[in-house]
């Protein structure tokens, strides 16, 4: 996993509420354990018609969305099953963060473990972002702030362990490996043996 410190991007707005993980990446595409290639199926059933052609009115299909790395979504993003493929598909597509007023807990945890940033904001900030698609934002992981077009900065919640892992480009296993000398020292000095 690469370190994630600051994300600067324009936003793409998808105001739909209750986007679940099956809409993010439909189950029929979960036949792989590789993260690569899942982006082509991101929001597949919303993005494409029954013949597989892109729907011109779907937000991610607009030319303006092409280089956006931050998705502004409706309330309750990532609900549904706990599939880790959902943040994998978002990352593989080129998105790095999602902003909403509510992000499902399991999705949020899977996202953070994989370097995809879930940003929860208040209703007023969310409404401003929804009303201004394509606005420039900066997400600062270390400061836990979302800055909007240099006019407004708001805090967003992120636990200290996830922040540490993101800033250092490690996952949970990487963190444990960093502690190997302390673990070995403990194992050697403990009075009991398993």
Structure, described:
With 194 residues, this protein is an alpha/beta fold. The protein has one domain (6-189): Aconitase, domain 4 (Alpha-Beta Barrel). It is built from eight helices and seven strands. A seven-stranded mixed β-sheet has the order 4-3-2-1-5-6-7. Strand 6 and strand 7 form a beta hairpin. The protein is globular, with a radius of gyration of 19 Å.
Short description:
With 194 residues, the chain is α/β, with parallel strands linked by helices.
Summarize the helices and strands and which ones pair or pack.
Layout: E1 6-14, H1 21-24, H2 44-47, E2 70-73, H3 85-93, E3 97-100, H4 105-113, E4 117-120, H5 123-131, E5 136-140, E6 145-148, E7 152-155, H6 160-168, H7 172-178, H8 180-189
Parallel strand pairs: 1-2, 2-3, 3-4
Antiparallel strand pairs: 1-5, 5-6, 6-7
């Amino acid at each position: 996993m690469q370190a994630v410190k600051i994300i600067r991007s324009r936003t793409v707005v998808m105001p739909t509420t209750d986007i679940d993980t099956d809409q993010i990446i439909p189950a029929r595409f979960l036949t792989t354990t590789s993260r690569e290639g899942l982006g082509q199926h991101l929001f597949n059933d919303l993005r494409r018609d029954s013949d597989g052609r892109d729907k011109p009115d779907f937000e991610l299909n607009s030319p303006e969305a092409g280089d956006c790395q931050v998705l502004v979504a409706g309330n309750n993003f990532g609900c549904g099953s706990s599939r880790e493929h959902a943040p994998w598909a978002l990352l593989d597509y080129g998105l790095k963060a999602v902003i909403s007023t509510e992000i499902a807990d399991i999705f949020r945890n899977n996202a953070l473990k994989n370097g995809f940033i879930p940003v929860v904001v208040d209703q007023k900030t969310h409404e401003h972002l929804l009303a201004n698609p394509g606005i420039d934002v900066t997400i600062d992981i270390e400061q836990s702030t979302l800055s909007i077009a240099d006019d407004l900065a708001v805090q967003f919640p992120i636990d200290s362990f996830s922040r540490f892992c993101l800033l250092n480009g490690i996952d949970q296993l990487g963190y444990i490996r960093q502690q190997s000398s302390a673990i070995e020292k403990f194992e050697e000095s403990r009075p009991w043996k398993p």
